[in-house]
Amino acid sequence: MRDISLNIEAENQESSKFDDDGQVKRTGTMFTATAHIITAVIGSGVLSLAWAIAQLGWIAGPIALLAFAVITWFTSILLADCYRSTDGTRNYTYIEVVRSHLGGLKFQLCGIAQHSNLVGSCIGYSITASISMVAMGRSYCFHKYGHEAGCHRSNNPYIMSFGAMQLVLSQIPNFHKLTMLSIVAAVMSFAYSSIGIGLSIGKIAEGGQIESGLTGVPIGKDMSSTDKMWNTYNALGNIAFAYAFSNVLVEIQDTVKSGASENRTMKNATLAGISISTIFYMLCGVLGYAAFGNDAPGNFLTGFGFYEPFWLVGLANLFIVIHLVGAYQVYCQPTFAFVEELGRKKWPESKFVTREYSIYGRFDLNLFRLVWRSSFVILTTVVAMLFPFFNDFMGLLGAASFWPLTVYFPIEMYIARAKIPRFSFTWIWMQILSGICLVISLLAAAGAIQGLIKSLGTFKPFHSVS
């Protein structure tokens, strides 16, 4: 009897190490989930908000920011409810949630939309990190040689150095190992946003003639009505990109520890993450526009005017780079996991795909993971060198991800899960919301594509200079 009780006790201790799906017990909390969300939300998108508000003006700019925040929060809550299937089983990724609740063609379309956006975000982060690296050198150059000095540098070596860092970090096995990286990245996002806010306040305090308006940049000799229209659409895409994190929300929720409050924890983390992000967005966008007016640069930390104190400008851009190092990993991990799972299913007997090699007893190395992830990083690095257009690229990514991933799929899954009748009041207003967001996304995409075409007309590949 004593042996039986010991065996039962050992089995209970062993089972306590695993969750209901047999995986190692999740330990995520509201704090760690909020850190993941802030890392995903506050990224390179914050840098273009002053420019976006300059295109929209004092009225439409802040309203657009708040509207995107509320819509993202609402649909994120719907998505959090869909993490588990109706039978209680877990869905580990965004795609699995769609397959569980919608299936068929919608599942395939979601896979294309999600992974295209994740790859695009990694490319965008490579571009932004290189611009910030260059800005660090330029701020010191301006300080040493004066503001009249060109201090121009090629972006390509910095894009490659960022890619080299990601080659190493991309061997982190999965999302659950990214907690510390996300916390550091979240702290960095607060730091550089705060510095940007402080620099904006300092510039406002200096006084001077700053032109701004209720409708943003006015139509005139330097801005035709057509250009104003395209810039307005592009600005909406930039704001949409600033809130693009729904495509990793499920992966973040999969790190939260099990229990009756699992769903509530994720909803609270979503509310906290989006609220904190929106406060910083509003401060950066509004104060940035107040500081620069209609001449607000595309990237308000690397544009003209922020030359002194040079060490603070350099520090802010260093924080951006550190943050984007973590954000890149948050966004690429779902794509890594998707391809590796396909590989294991297709070649279950291949040692190249499945075998893990222990390095000094501390690190696990898998050859397929090494080759595939390294190829991914190299590809995103090369594309970033080919198309280093910050605002247009951010606008296109925002437009491409906002409606399908942030709005359409969460609404459709919630309707299917809750069995909301067609043409009921709830169904109708949800469809109206989805339709409005679709129109906004299409307009934003048109503005971004027009900007990219315009930029490509004068650009030479691999010759980007900041």
TrEMBL record:
<dbReference type="GO" id="GO:0003333">
    <property type="term" value="P:amino acid transmembrane transport"/>
</dbReference>
<dbReference type="GO" id="GO:0016020">
    <property type="term" value="C:membrane"/>
</dbReference>
<dbReference type="InterPro" id="IPR013057">
    <property type="entry name" value="AA_transpt_TM"/>
</dbReference>
<keyword id="KW-0813">Transport</keyword>
<feature type="transmembrane region" description="Helical">
    <location>
        <begin position="427"/>
        <end position="453"/>
    </location>
</feature>
<feature type="domain" description="Amino acid transporter transmembrane">
    <location>
        <begin position="26"/>
        <end position="453"/>
    </location>
</feature>
<feature type="transmembrane region" description="Helical">
    <location>
        <begin position="232"/>
        <end position="250"/>
    </location>
</feature>
<feature type="transmembrane region" description="Helical">
    <location>
        <begin position="370"/>
        <end position="390"/>
    </location>
</feature>
<dbReference type="Pfam" id="PF01490">
    <property type="entry name" value="Aa_trans"/>
</dbReference>
<feature type="transmembrane region" description="Helical">
    <location>
        <begin position="396"/>
        <end position="415"/>
    </location>
</feature>
<feature type="transmembrane region" description="Helical">
    <location>
        <begin position="33"/>
        <end position="53"/>
    </location>
</feature>
<feature type="transmembrane region" description="Helical">
    <location>
        <begin position="310"/>
        <end position="331"/>
    </location>
</feature>
<feature type="transmembrane region" description="Helical">
    <location>
        <begin position="271"/>
        <end position="290"/>
    </location>
</feature>
<keyword id="KW-0472">Membrane</keyword>
<keyword id="KW-1133">Transmembrane helix</keyword>
<feature type="transmembrane region" description="Helical">
    <location>
        <begin position="59"/>
        <end position="80"/>
    </location>
</feature>
<keyword id="KW-0812">Transmembrane</keyword>
<dbReference type="GO" id="GO:0015171">
    <property type="term" value="F:amino acid transmembrane transporter activity"/>
</dbReference>
<protein>
    <recommendedName>
        <fullName>Amino acid transporter transmembrane domain-containing protein</fullName>
    </recommendedName>
</protein>
<keyword id="KW-0029">Amino-acid transport</keyword>
<feature type="transmembrane region" description="Helical">
    <location>
        <begin position="178"/>
        <end position="201"/>
    </location>
</feature>
